[in-house]
Every structure is written in C-alpha cells, then in structure tokens.
Automatic annotation (TrEMBL):
<comment type="similarity">
    <text>Belongs to the V-ATPase 116 kDa subunit family.</text>
</comment>
<feature type="transmembrane region" description="Helical">
    <location>
        <begin position="415"/>
        <end position="439"/>
    </location>
</feature>
<dbReference type="InterPro" id="IPR002490">
    <property type="entry name" value="V-ATPase_116kDa_su"/>
</dbReference>
<keyword id="KW-1133">Transmembrane helix</keyword>
<keyword id="KW-0175">Coiled coil</keyword>
<feature type="coiled-coil region">
    <location>
        <begin position="84"/>
        <end position="118"/>
    </location>
</feature>
<dbReference type="Pfam" id="PF01496">
    <property type="entry name" value="V_ATPase_I"/>
</dbReference>
<feature type="transmembrane region" description="Helical">
    <location>
        <begin position="634"/>
        <end position="653"/>
    </location>
</feature>
<keyword id="KW-0406">Ion transport</keyword>
<keyword id="KW-0472">Membrane</keyword>
<feature type="transmembrane region" description="Helical">
    <location>
        <begin position="576"/>
        <end position="599"/>
    </location>
</feature>
<keyword id="KW-0375">Hydrogen ion transport</keyword>
<keyword id="KW-0813">Transport</keyword>
<feature type="transmembrane region" description="Helical">
    <location>
        <begin position="460"/>
        <end position="477"/>
    </location>
</feature>
<feature type="transmembrane region" description="Helical">
    <location>
        <begin position="546"/>
        <end position="564"/>
    </location>
</feature>
<keyword id="KW-0812">Transmembrane</keyword>
<protein>
    <recommendedName>
        <fullName>V-type proton ATPase subunit a</fullName>
    </recommendedName>
</protein>
Length: 817
C-alpha cells in the first residue's frame, strides 16, 4: 500500500515435513518475508529440539572469533570475495576443518610464545653481559689507577689488588680468617620500580650492600608479559647468605629478572658469544614459525568471510527451527508467522523449491489463519525514505495500517527546518556536505563509522532536502551569510532626495526611504529592509505571522488525516464526535486568526490582531472600531465563538454515551440469543462476553475527558509552540549578522593582510562550528518536536510493533561474530 499505510499482513501456518525442514527455513530466510512466532515459549534453550546443534554452532562461532582476533593481531584482514560454485561445505565438514585449524594455530602460537619468551630472556642476558662488562672494566681501570699511586703503609701488591678490584683497601689489609667473600647478582628491573627497589634493598640489608645501576636505552620485551617495558640494569654486591636470601625475595617481588654473570673476562666473552649464536638461531626459528602462522592465517583469511556467513546462517536457521512446534507422530514441524499478503506467491514458490531440493515426498502445507491478534506494522522503504521512516518510528511504531506520517514528513520536516535555518549560503554549505556523503555512499557503507558520522550518513538524504529547502527559504529571506543581495530586480524604495542613492541616503535612518512603485519586490524580502531601522519590527512581524500560518496548516493536516484513519477503520463515532468538533474548534479560533492575518496582508491595513482576538472572548459584542477588517465581523466572531464552545461538549459526551449504548445493545442481543436456544457458539460467546464485560463507562468517560482537555489546551499551546519557527529564524539571522559584522568586516577594516586572514579564518570556524553544526542540530531538534508533538498527536497512535522478518540480510547487523 505504498507509504501511506502499512502493508496488509496475514497470519500463516506452515506444516513442514521433518526431512525438508532445514531447507525450507533456509529458503524462507533468503526470501526474508516471514516473521515467525515462538511456539515453545515455556521451553528453555537447552530443552529445545536442536539444542545440540546450537551448542556446536556456538563453539564454531568461538573459533571464528578467535581466528578473527588472531588476524587482527597479525595485521591481516579477511578477503571479501564471492562464493564460487562448488566451494560450499557442509556444517560437519566445516566443524572438522575449524577444529583442525584451531589446533594447528594454537600449537604454532604456543611454540612461538615459548620461543619468544626464550628470545626475550636471551636479549636481556645479552644486555646484562654488556652492561656488566662495562661496569667491571671501569672498576678494574679505577683499581689500576689507584695501584699506580705511591705505595703507603704496607699495601698489597699491584697484581693481587687488581685481582680483587671491588674490595676496599681496609678489607684487603684484614686477616684472611676475618674476611668474608663478597657476592653479587645482576639483572634487569622495570625503570618505574627502581626507586622503590633501591629503598627496600637498603632497609632490608641495613645498608650493607652496594647497588650500581645503568638505564637501558631502548625498551625491551618482557619475557613474562611480552610487552615493551623500559628497564634498568643493576648489579648488587652483598655479603652473607642471609643477605642473599632477602635480596632474592625482594627481586622476585619487584619483577626483576636475574641472570648469571661470570667474573672472569674470558668467560664473559665466551658466554656473550654463545648468547649471540643462540639469538641468531632463535631468530631464524621465530621467523620460520611466524611464516608458518601467516600461511595458516592467509588460508583462514581467504575463507573467513565465507565460513562466517555459513555459520551465521546455520545459527539463524536452527534458532528458527527451535521456535517451531515439533509433531513427533506425524514427523513434521508446525510453524506460525506473519507475512505480507502480497508476498504469498513468492513464499509458496520458495516452499515448493525447498521440497524439490530436499527430495521430500510431501510438500509444505501453507494455510492462512484467522485471528484477532494485531499484526505487525511493515512499511516498504528504500534508502531515500528509510531515514524519514526512522524519524517517525523513533516516536513510536505505527498501529497496523493507520496513516503513516513519514509520507508527509518527507516534505514538511525539511521545510520547517529550513524556515528556522533560512540562509542560502549556509544551505549551500549543508548541500555540499550531503552531496559528499551521497557520492561516497558505497565506500561509507563498507566502513565502520563513528556514532555521529554513522547518524549523519544514515540521514544523508534528509540533510540533502534540508539543504535544498534552506536555499529556497534563504532566497525568500534574501540572506547570504546575512548579506542581502539584489538578485531579483530593483528595490521598490528610493531615497527622497534624488541626488542620493539608497546606500548613502541621509534620510534612511531618520524619516525613511520613499516607495516609488506599488509593485512588490519580485521574489522574497526586499533587500532594502536589511540594515534599516525598521528591519527587526518588519521581519519579526512577518516571521511570527508566517509561523502561525504554517502551524495552523500542519495541525489541520493532522486532523484531516485522523478522518482518513476513522474512515478506514469504519469508526463513524470518531468521525462525528472527534474529527468534526476538533476541526471546528481549531478553525473557529486559530483558523480565524490565520484568515485575519492573510486579510490584513492583502489589504495593507493596520488593525491590532491582538486586540481583536482578546476582545473576541472578553467582549464579543463590542464595536471593533478601527480594528474592523470586513463588514459583519462582529457577528461572524460571535458565531465562531459559540461554535467553538459547542465543540467542547461535543467532543466530551456523545462518544462515551454512544459506546455505552452499543455495549448495552450487544449485551441484550446476546441474552436473546441464549433464550432462543442458540448453543452452537457457546465458547465464542463466552469469550466475547468476557471482552464486553471489561467495558467501564466511567473509565471511558474519564479517558474522553482527558483527550478533550488535552486537545483544547493543546490547540493553544501547540499554536504557540510553532512560534519557535520565528524565534529560531530570528536567532539564526542575528547570529549570522553578528559574526559577519563583528568578525569579518572588523578584520577587513585593517590593511594588514595577516589580520584579514586571521579574521577570515575565525569567521569560517565560528560559521562552521556555531551556525552549521550547533544551529543545524538545534533546528533539527525543534523540527522533530513539532512533528512528534504538534503534528502526530492529532492522528497517530504509535502503539504498534515493527515487522521483523527472518532474513539472512539482517544477520550481520543483529549477530556480530
């Protein structure tokens, strides 16, 4: 039914043979036109028919996610390609293949991690050997220098002193029986922990230790975590086994890695050579392991998209099969679901193809069920209309087959936005942004965008229409970045003194300009109004009255659409006791105000419309005097006032009384049916009686009273709410004028080109940030409120639920593997 109403739906029942159930559900998923109902709501996921299959598929999903994480870690991306005929694999084959690949990848990763840990340890050992050698070499050189100094007081020989360069002179003079051999340990500690490490060591040993440290220039891979960490080399000298035990525990607590360090220089060189040789061997082994891992990941990446799609489809199929009711005796599945009436031939064709492909001897039985259950709402949209439908659905999904506001929102939403945003310079900037999103549509579809960018891309066609309407209203307001342009001819005003032009007329700000012709400016606002002393009064009056006219027109449209709803659902009560009084009440008051505005514009007279509307209520019979616009105006206003007063009880009382009368007639007719012996529909009658007994006149009356009060008060508040069109338009124009006058023109008064450039840059930034982003968002939200509250509440219930068919096309969005 196009976009005016939702598609006509029907509840269908499918009786599917067990041997063709999988193929049938698969074909239905490819078609995407049936919303299945869960016929096993009381069963848990583990009690359903295909619980084991779902468990297997869950394990396959885990493996695929693991493969994807490994590819991201390795910097690879899956290959997107079309599935070639003959490459299809069954679920069992895919399960075996995924298990083999996971086992192989886990083994490779385990060996690689083990080798990488060993490699990192050897790298740290190599650094310890280098830094330790430098420390011992500098210590020996210092000891040699001291030995060359003049001997004093029985010093040891130079040769023996060099052998123990780290011992103090006093220690070397003590008796051999009283000396304790110094021990030392070397290693690496994280740089961030060095200060605490040194402090704890000093306290634990009571200062009986010597710590020497040197920073490592580049971060190294930590063997425990595999992360890059900045570390510091340390060598710690101590005396005694107790001190050694304490120090070892402290090193373990601070995550320090300890490595052996030989004292003899020859052994140091030999150990360093061995470490370098082992590093070279490990690097070769690691490269081979990484190459093998990349080969496996390349194989996985070539098929990952295909496997993911396969698993995702199978998961959806078995999930749907679990929603069906299984008839064990007949060896079949029974399913129920909603589908569009127009799609019946397509569904039957898919069911026939599924039966043929599965070699089933019995075809699937397709039959329509009759129910009183409310069907889901389904609107067929495209990429252009989808964004407008989403705007409406954000308020509430429409009731089944009620009038869809999205059809009218396509025009009214961008137009009301443009009324508040009217500037054709800003509109062109907005248009360029929308065209950029539309031109690069295919590229952005395949990318993951941020929240804000994704929202803008989804509404690209809304932004396009908003920009086009903004350009139109900008021409109407004659504003180009707040600058008026003479695009449509000469102004209707001139300077009273012929020797002056309009721009330099001295009377422009005093007595004013002179109108030299009766014909108005060809299109839009005469540019001469901009910058004049009467600009704000003129534009305020025009935009305020225009806002009221647009508001009354849109609210009347909403009431008229309520008539189409009532007519479609055959509700004569809503037509006579809701549509008619609402239309009379709104137009007898605010429709009359709109008529006066148009009449005042056409006559060029100066009556006070505030005075007319106020005294229409306070003193309806009073003579209007100079505020009179037409003959018989007083009598017309009295008739309109009386009609609007009659419309209020018209909305309040007749509908509840009529519903009560209908209820009593049905109740009386059912009683006569029982007395006359009609027993063939006892169960149905009992159900109807149960429904009818829920009718409460007091509840209906209170509900109608609330609805009436809401409409009467809303007619006033909603009309006033449309004045936001005037307020936002005025604010946008004044902000634009301030930025242009106080930023751009101010900078242009200077002859320095740098100041001009700075002024232009600042003007561009504030225009983009404030006028093109913040003001766009503000106008968008206000237009959204006008549609949701002032327009849609006249006819739109929005209490339905959306049609979500079982479709493979939406699986990627709903189930991210």
């Amino acid at each position: 039914m196009d976009l005016f109403r939702s598609e006509e739906m029907m509840l269908v029942q499918l009786i599917i043979p067990a041997e063709s159930a999988h193929d049938t559900v698969t074909y239905v998923g490819e078609l995407g036109l049936i919303q299945f109902k869960d016929l096993n709501p009381d069963k848990s996921p583990f009690q359903r028919t295909y619980a084991n299959q779902m468990k297997r598929i869950g394990e396959m999903v885990r493996k695929l996610r693991y493969f994807h994480d490994q590819m991201v870690k390795a910097g690879q991306t899956p290959v997107k390609r079309a599935v070639v005929e003959g490459e299809e694999v069954t679920l069992d084959e895919l399960e075996i293949k995924l298990s083999d690949l996971e086992a192989e990848l886990l083994e490779i990763n385990a060996n690689t991690d083990k080798l990488q840990r060993k490699y990192s340890e050897l790298v740290e050992l190599h650094l310890v050997l280098e830094k330790g050698a430098q420390f011992f070499s500098s210590a020996r050189n210092g000891a040699a220098v001291q030995q060359r100094r003049p001997a004093a007081d029985g010093l040891l020989s130079t040769e023996e002193g060099i052998d123990r360069p780290l011992l103090s002179e006093q220690e070397m003079q003590t008796e051999p029986s009283k000396t304790a051999r110094l021990g030392f340990i070397t290693g690496l500690v994280p740089k961030l922990k060095v200060t605490s490490f040194e402090r704890i060591l000093f306290r634990a040993t009571r200062g009986n230790m010597f710590l020497k440290q040197a920073p490592i220039e580049q971060p190294v891979d930590d063997p425990a975590t595999g992360e890059k960490v900045e570390k510091t080399f340390f060598i710690l000298l101590f005396a005694g086994d107790r001190a050694r035990t304490k120090i070892m525990k402290i090193c373990e607590a601070f995550g320090a890695n300890l490595y052996p360090f030989p004292e003899e220089p020859n052994k140091q060189q030999q150990m360093k050579a061995e470490v370098e040789a082992r590093l070279a061997e490990l690097q070769t082994t690691l490269d081979a392991g990484i190459h093998q891992r990349d080969t496996v990941l390349n194989t996985i990446g070539y098929n990952l998209e295909k496997w993911t799609d396969k698993v995702r489809r199978e998961k959806a199929v078995y999930h749907t099969l679990n929603m069906l009711s299984r008839d064990v005796t007949r060896k079949c599945f029974v399913g129920e679901g909603w589908c569009p009436v127009s799609s019946k031939p397509k569904i039957q064709d898919a069911l026939q193809r599924a039966a043929n492909d599965s070699n089933s001897q019995v075809n699937t039985i397709f039959q329509v069920l009759h129910t009183k259950e409310s069907p889901p709402t389904y609107h067929i949209t495209n990429k252009f209309t989808n964004a407008f439908q989403e705007i409406v659905d954000a308020y509430g999904v429409g009731r089944y087959q009620e009038v869809n506001p999205a059809l009218f929102t396509i025009i009214t939403f961008p137009f009301l936005f443009a009324v508040m945003f009217g500037d054709w310079g800003h509109g062109i900037a907005l248009l360029l942004g929308a065209l950029y999103l539309i031109i690069n549509e295919e590229k952005f579809k395949s990318q993951k965008l941020g929240d804000i960018m994704d929202m803008a891309f989804g509404g690209r066609y809304v932004i396009l229409l908003m920009a086009l309407f903004s350009i139109y209203t900008g021409f109407v307001y004659n504003e180009f970045f707040s600058v008026p342009l003479h695009l449509f001819g000469e102004s209707s005003y001139r300077c009273p003194d012929p020797q002056y032009g309009i721009a330099n007329c001295p009377m422009a700000s005093t007595s004013g300009l002179m109108k030299w012709r009766d014909t108005p400016y060809p299109f839009g606002v005469d540019p001469i109004w901009h910058g004049s002393r009467t600009e704000l009064p003129f534009l305020n009056s025009m935009k305020m009255k225009m806002s009221i006219l647009l508001g009354i027109a849109q609210m009347n449209l909403g009431i008229i659409l309520s008539y189409f709803n009532a007519q479609f659902f055959r509700s004569s009560l809503d037509i006579w006791y809701q549509f008619v009084p609402q239309l009379l009440f709104l137009n007898c008051l605010f429709g009359y105000l709109s008529f006066l505005i148009l009449l005042k514009w056409s006559q060029g007279s100066k009556p006070d419309l505030y005075h007319i509307m106020i005294y229409m209520f306070l003193s309806p019979t009073e003579d209007l005097g100079e505020n009179k616009l037409f003959e018989g105006q007083t009598y017309v206003q009295i008739v309109l006032l009386i009609t609007s007063l009659i419309a209020v009880p018209w909305m309040l009382l007749p509908k509840p009384l009529a519903l009560r009368s209908q209820y009593l007639q049905k109740l009386q007719g059912r009683t006569y049916g029982v007395l006359s012996g009609v027993d063939n529909n006892d169960v149905e009658d009992d159900g109807d009686q149960h429904e009818e007994e829920e009718f409460e006149f007091s509840e209906v009356l209170v509900h109608q009273m609330i609805h009436t009060i809401e409409f009467v008060l809303g007619a006033v508040s909603n009309t006033a709410s449309y004045l936001r069109l005037w307020a936002l338009s005025l604010a946008h124009a004044q902000l634009s004028a301030v930025f242009y006058d106080r930023v751009l023109l101010f900078a242009w008064e200077y002859s320095n080109p740098i100041i001009k450039l700075i002024g232009f840059v600042v003007f561009a930034f504030v225009t983009i940030g404030v006028l093109l982003i913040m003001e766009t968002l503000s106008a968008f939200l206000h237009a959204l409120r006008l549609h949701w509250v002032e327009f849609q509440n006249k006819f739109y219930h929005g209490d339905g639920y959306k049609f979500h068919p079982f479709s493979f096309e939406t699986l990627a969005e709903e189930d991210d593997i």
